[in-house]
Amino acid sequence: MGFGTMFKANRAYKAQKNGDRAEAIRLYEECFAEGLNDPRYILSYAVLIIRDGQYQKAKEFLVKHQKAPGMSADQRTTLIVDYAVCCFRLGDLDKAVRKMEELYRKGPNGVIYQTLGYLYVEQFDAKRKAVFLARETEAQEQQDPAVALLADAEGAAAPMTMEEKWEAGRQKALKFNQEAVEYDEEDSICLDNLGQTWYRVMEDPEQARPWFEKAHAVKPEQIDTLYFLSRYDLAEGKREEARKKLEQASEGRFSPLNYCERDQVLAEIQELKGEEGQHE
Predict the structure, then answer these.
(1) Does 13 have pLDDT greater than 80?
(2) What is the pTM of this model?
């Protein structure tokens, strides 16, 4: 790798900052083909292709470059977080959670609380309960008989039922996201995660609402917070207010850890506009 490669990497970084994603990706890929192995550019490129929805490509790239020389502890944490996000978006939520839990055990920080907190909400969303119970039942049926005998031995703790495992998971999600807010009560993402925990996991929208409102006060443009606050507007018949919140959300920068997607939000805006037109 020569001086020209580093010069090209800087051009790629500038293109990325200027919003020219296609040019940045092209230049970065030329640089990596020429032997670039600098953690700064590895992580910058990974973010680009993750935001482009290329999760499998990003996952493989991060694995290939996980031992890049000179990578700091913070950069390694970022790499693992990005890897976990890829696992989640590729459908392996449990693996994503395991990787984040490994990071958490080494010492939490804001990004870990934000990411793992959201993954717990996804993992124990009430809509996933049937899938969770079916999977746990299948795992139990495939259990090694010797392990089952040990569990039944005198003095051994009785195995948890599937319902008990689900409830333990819900409580874990709630406890973790409460802890995250205690860690930083001004973190809008953690506040939103706690709101989503009450709304989606515990199925208690009234307990959720104050946390969404606190998140909105800290960061008024936060996409998911606006989306969930619009649910309350709709429930109260305030359709115009809901539409305005969704319109603001649609202008935001969506990430792989957003609950709602831009197309979903835009479709709902059009539906609300149509309803408003019918009442004119």
Answers:
(1) yes
(2) 0.90
